[in-house]
Amino acid sequence: MDKQTLFINGEVITVNEENEVKEAAAICGNKIIAVGSNDEILALKTDESEIVDLAGRTLMPGLIDAHLHVTTIGLNTLSVSCKEEHIVSIEDLLMDLRKAAEKEAKGSWIRAWGYNDQKMTEKRYPTKEELDSVSTDHPIVVTRACGHIKMVNTLALELAGITKDTPDPEGGIIVKDENGELTGVLIETAGAPIAKKSALTEEEFDRALAIASDLLIEKGITTIHDASISSPANLRALQRASLTRNLKPRLYTMIGSAVNGEALVEKMLQSGIYTGLGNEYFKIGPVKLFLDGSSSGPTIWTKEPYTSDPNDYGVRYYEQDLVDGLFVEAHKQGWQITVHAQGDAAIDMILSTIEKANEECPRPNARHRIEHAGVATPDLIERMKAQGVVPTPNPAFLYEYGDGYLKNYGERTNHMFPLKDYLEAGIPAAITSDSPVTDFAPMRGIHSALVRKSQTGQEVGPNQKINLTEALRMYTINSAYASFDEDMKGSLEVGKLADLVILDRSILNAKTDEILDIQVECTIIDGEVVYQR
After folding, report:
1. Staple 139 to which of 156, 244, 306, 481, CB 3.0 to 4.6 Å?
2. Alpha-carbon span 316 to 332, nearest angstrom
3. Total structural domains in the chain?
4. What is the three-class DSSP state of 439?
5. How far is it between the farthest Cα atoms of the chain?
6. Within 10 A of 178 (CB to CB), how many other CB atoms are there?
7. CATH number of the domain that 169 lies in?
8. Domain contains 159
9. pLDDT along the chain (533 residues), means of 10
10. pTM of the model
């Protein structure tokens, strides 16, 4: 007989259509069997029932992060973190890199992540000469917080075959100094050869995913949409980790890469499979392209120049014809399609493609997505609504990068990650972290959706604030909708999977700033406790 657990005396946030809050709930096996009052739930009690007294704490659906990079989250714990509080200058970073190099055999890659030039004393990137001072026997790569810019030493450049005569690739820049010499800075697709050379081994994949799994369930994340499976090895590692439960959160995969993404999409179109293949633990999601760069870089592709630079419109990856050619065919084959599109020009491009696809081959409920959809003006939102598009905004970015947004985009910040506009348009936007670009803790994203403030306290598009109930829906049922799973999970309703989270207090009674202090007491996936605080 399946195990039965009764939760009573709680704040049971159902996230159903009426946003009801109940006292109690019951699960049996891996399904929710009842939601209601204490008396209604206790009436189900048997001699074998386990009773959990919530004592006023919140019980809610498991949180779903609809866009993060799970392998990178794990890998970063094995790398130097530039987000450590003591790293405030380039010399601080170099010291940590030296310590890492001393522990590794010659020839091993030394990696650092989370670098933000705007938070460094020097307000710049480290040069290849500075990285050479760490080691000339180890290839070194430092990745900016956005993930779109790399800084490398001479050995890394040599291994990747990049010289001062190497031309800039489409959608990328190999940065050189005034004498035409390499600086070691590689922007967007220019970092592709480095990514290829520093690719993970199978053992590194497994270690990284096990670490990431533990970190995510500690924060109540029961499903993840992995944002970029960029190689067959990555896909195999994720499937293996999911099926062995080495990766405990359920997984919905996006297949795409910032490097030669068009070739990867072509391969998937030739494979004969399409979105939806898999099971409750591991499922193939959309094919994906990158249309522009990073909102914090800044390298997003905009219609008007940056407020900070009248000559800068950002980085554009592809021409319209190429995107149309790949994605109209993908649409016809049954794929969900998505893109990384931060700037309004990039959003305009993918909407044109989706409009063409739906005109040529009407397909109800295709639920094509736009990852980030950074600068989404009212005219673009109207087109999203008409095409049934699901955007995945990142309100936590406003906290970490908001000061730069105000500088680079000015008044356009009133349309950045416009949660209020999505609500008013009836668009089921799904809040995501894009971790490790920013913190994967859902409470950070939820809080940012409510206050829209940067680290220095500046408001960033305050006209787009939403309330707590709306934010919780965007982190649960809307994210389930983005993967066609709203009938299976995303709310606490009878018949759905028993993916649940118990918080350490009532979230509905917490003051806004107290939300950041809320901890997860227990995470349950498939009716089984996978994390207990």
Report:
1. 156
2. 25
3. 2
4. coil
5. 80
6. 5
7. 3.10.310.70
8. yes
9. 94 98 98 98 95 98 97 86 92 95 92 90 95 96 89 96 93 93 94 85 86 97 91 88 94 90 94 96 97 93 97 95 98 98 98 98 96 98 98 97 97 98 98 94 97 97 98 98 98 98 98 97 98 96
10. 0.87
